[in-house]
Amino acid sequence: MSLARLKEYLQPASLDEALTLLQNGPEKTRLIGGGIDIVLHNKDVERLIDLSRLSLAYVNQEETGISVGATTTMTQLLEASPVQGYLGGIIPEVLHLVASPLLRNLGTIGGTLASAHPWSDIITLFLALAADVTLFDGEHHTVPLVELYRGKYRKILSGAIITGVFVPNHPSNTAAAFRKFSRTGFDIALLNCACLIQLANDRCSKARVVAGGTPWLASRLTSVEEALIGEPFESRSIVKAAIMAESTAAVHGDTRASADYRRELIRIGIERCLIQVMQRSSG
Amino acid sequence: MNIVLTINGIRRELTIDPGETLLHLLRRVGYKGVKKGCETGDCGACAVLLDDRAVNSCLVLAAKADGHEIVTIEGLAQWGKEDEIYPIGQAWDDELHPIQRAFLDAGAVQCGYCTPGMMISAADLLAHNPNPTEREIKEAIAGNLCRCTGYVKQIEAISKAAEIIRGLHE
Amino acid sequence: MSKGDFYVVGKSLPKVDGISLVTGKPRFVADIELPGMLYAKILTSPHPHARIVGIDTSKAEKLPGVASVLTHDNTPHTRYTTAGQGYPEPSPYDTMMFDSKVRFVGDRVAAVAAENEQVADEALRLIRVDYAPIPEIISPDDAIAAGAPVIHDERDARGIHDARHNIAASVDIATGDVGAGFSESDVVVETTCETQYAQHVPLEPHVCLSWLDEDGRLVIRTSTQVPFHVRRIVAHVLNLPVGKIRVIKPRIGGAFGTKQEIVLEDLAGLFTLRTGRPVLLELTRKEEFVSSRTRHPMRVRVKLGAKKNGTLHAIEMEALSNTGAYGTHGLTVLSNVGSKTLPLYNKADNVHFFGKAVYTNLPVAGAYRGYGAPQGYFPLETAMDELAERLGIDPLVLRRRNHIQTGETSPIFERLGEGREGVAQTIKSCALDRCIEAGAERIGWTDKRGKRHMEGKTAYGIGMSIHMQGSGIPYIDMGAATIKMNEDGSFNLLLGATDLGTGSDTILAQIAAEVLGVPLSKMIVYSSDTDRTPFDVGAYASSTTYVSGQAVEQAAKKIRGQIISVASAMLGEDMEGLILADEHVIGEGKSVSLAEVCRHALYESDQFQPAATASYFPRETAPPFMASFAEVAVDTETGAVGVVRYVAAVDCGTAINPRLAEGQVEGAVVNGIGYALTEEMLLSKHGRVQNPSLFDYKIPCALDIPPIDVILVESHEPTGPMGAKSIAEIGINAPIPTIANAVYDAVGIRLSKTPFTPERVLQAIRKAK
Known about the structure:
By secondary structure, chain B is α+β, with helices and mostly antiparallel strands.
């Protein structure tokens, strides 16, 4: 199996050069990070622009958060020292659940965001963490991840290069948790969810609640977030929030799971995330 | 197009199709130990080391390997002896890599088709974590499917290989 | 002979082909390339059921690089079966290389051989096919409903039980009177279980390479379990003398039954004959899922009648098997649903087994490890658990009271064989009682059973089941081996038996080495080449250790006689007092090395080649037995079932190589856990496989396996080689009923449909509330 129509494999040395090649390329021009989805799903691609010489493989601790370059592999991120202590190690915890080491050694963070598989565990997590994505289209843009796939940024994304992602620091009274439901230990999520909760005086002061693989791309469950904010963070409100997730989240059935079952999973997943957040907050 | 890469320690200049996968290239130039099981990254039979990390060669474009180092099962025994891959930095006195020896001794090989990729994943693991837990071993080979062994003896073999490697250090 | 008396047998020696496999040597079919090799590809049907009105291949033929195009219009119209079984095959001759009708999505329509794969693919796209669709049948119930379309309406098919009603095969046998049996019973239970479309998933898909040798003979190097059947069937299909074909089996990347089918060899062979060139034909993983073979999905009903004391009195078993578009292995798999299960409970005098294998326009079922037994054991062992509960007896005790024992027989042995009457026999070795005891102790049965407990939302439970299988097929199988001696004291062991990765080359060499008193390193093993090795039916039906093993033992004994005769002359001693040990023939005070003996025979006096061939034809089978235990954790909210611990205690007779024997059971159990929990081919309303990839057909990975304890409970099988029995299949029978019974223990629900996906389990939990 190969990409029979690929004519050009280009390895630019600068972002500007990469962008020029992208914008002046034939219609079937794609950027390539690790290349997993290119090889699997872009059989008709004619020009590939490899980003690996742009020095975008880094994980940097900055004052306000962690900056991750687009060509950083999932393994590099998992092993990077800045993420180990971030929110109780939630980033490596989730990355351990993503695909297999063979795929994590190849797949990049930028590629993950560009491919935007609806079952992506990383996108679900990053949405909960309030990550920003950096894009380059001649100018550098910083875009909240939640905006990346809609509206004007969707359009920008098609002619731009994802250069990295930034996960902001959160106050010390914040905890996060993640749940993934899958068929085997090496599988995509039938459904995943992530919660980031900030507490003030045992009440929930900020909440980001996300579900992915519904089977659509992850999105925030704003009504659940609203139901949590301002309430005492305790079993009763957690159960209430989980039931709210079940009744309000948009889910759909496919060959992997029915809509009804995904609805169950969303309730169970949110409840289990929130309970874990509670344990992590008190611990 | 032409690329230059190192395969099992040997520098090779090769002419490739731009869209050719590394799996296809490696088998084409004679590394038949790299197995084709699915060509979709789901089985791990084609795993090779790309700059010391195990990857599915069916998902890597050969063009992307330009300038990089590849180790296939054919080169596993030599790899690590020379480059201080393992924290131990010490050679072993065996024609086989400790992982290969352990697979052989533990009865971890049945049909042998998943075995090269499985051992490549194990080599990556032990190069980065010479004292893995059972859970870490299982995770390291999660992308290498085996239908013959039920994984029991493979996990045992990797654990044993880790012991051998640590023992070399002492 | 006790274990301690063996020299080579009973030891966990590394495999004879192990070093080449761990170093990645090019030993598999596609690891060699031949000059001028063509690449072949198959065009398959997008329709589940249609007549081919016309095929236009002109554009494909004109495409540069295309060497040959095959369709119904230019290939033999011979009917055959793809089932690689003994001759005459019990499977119907309902298949043609390329038929004028397609019967499932994935059926052969045309094929192309070209200079490279891209050209072959392009050529397939240029073939124009006109189909006239026919209403399709996508369930076995619809297949036998009145007025159903007839799937095999061809006139020239042979051996179909009732083609007009889509019944490929039918079985009906009885002993005693079940009607009376049930009315005489104090307790009667009945259960019906359904199993899914599941696939073998060898890591190496089907692959075959053919060429013409220097004398113009057709050579087929293929990933097969049955090289001699391949030769016979390809000769039949292509109308060639058997002597014009050589089939070579190199190393095989797993098989599990799917390579007991002639899926590619006829095509590659014909391309080679047409073009004179080598041809490589390999299936992609997707094609493997869509067009190769599957396990027979079944619905099996079991009714048990028992006396108050727990003695079984009557058993009724009814099976409806879906054989898919072709009847390959349809009759024999159906037979084995009963024949491999019912003799286990021989205390019941009244037994009735009947069933049908029916055609549908769905993927083709074939041989798969277990071969009907897993489908039969699911309801049987579920019903036994229900019966135990009704009687208030520990399920383990109920089974002990009813299972067959050494020295006993079952009328089923005689009534039901492989698609025909069976063979009467008594059990010569059965350590099932010790298996039950050892397994129960290891898992902690007495402490844990019936004490379901919750940890948070997770319920824990424990379950068990017992099983038997066979060791080869009596009066049908035959294996042969040749041993030839060399002047350094080494031996060539030429085996018809087919090592699929099981390690049979190794254990057969251990048997020969044991007889000859030499270390394993002195055996040079070469297996499965129709030109170079003697005949063997192949590796299926758990036959290799038991059947081929005896051929090896006997060949070794024959050559030992020759060695002793030469040594007797050399030493000047009577033959009676001479023994072989440590690579020497040892007499009274004097000895001579095997190397010296062979040198003497080849060069010095009365020269001859010490060599022997022996065949073994089994007149009975020696069932292995197994007691299986599992502890499960059921997430009562999500329905997810996790296996926490698995214990398999297996009676394999003598374990020729204990580590390889354990490996057979471990592999089969994990394959069975996948079958029980996650594996399922999903089919659309029109019969299309919806998940033809390992991305969505989920087999267990390393993270999914629980701690698995395999306990080899040794016995001595007097009819087996060195006391051994075969255990390649038995392990796969167990996980479904064992896990189902454990789930019942945990949450009180009976699961009757596999796989036990979280969604299905949750529905069952909800329904019970």
